[in-house]
Amino acid sequence: MIEQAQFQSPWVLWALCLIPAFILWAWVERRKRAVLRFSAASLIFKQGRGIRPYLLWMLPALRITAFTLAIIALARPQEQNTRVKDL
Asked: Span 34-45, mean pLDDT?
């Protein structure tokens, strides 16, 4: 576990303030989905929903997670006052 950590470039962490904007963007993009007009809609409803609608939230969540982890990696976290054990 990292007990004493510091960042090589702590100013990069200010980019974490962009995460709420990405969440808002993902929410707006989901609301703008196109509507399919189909003359025999009853056939589509009998088909079933499948797994895709249940997994649609995962793509924006994974993008936000990747963005957050990339920012933390760019800030370069480092441990201090650690001893290295030789083999």
From this structure: 65
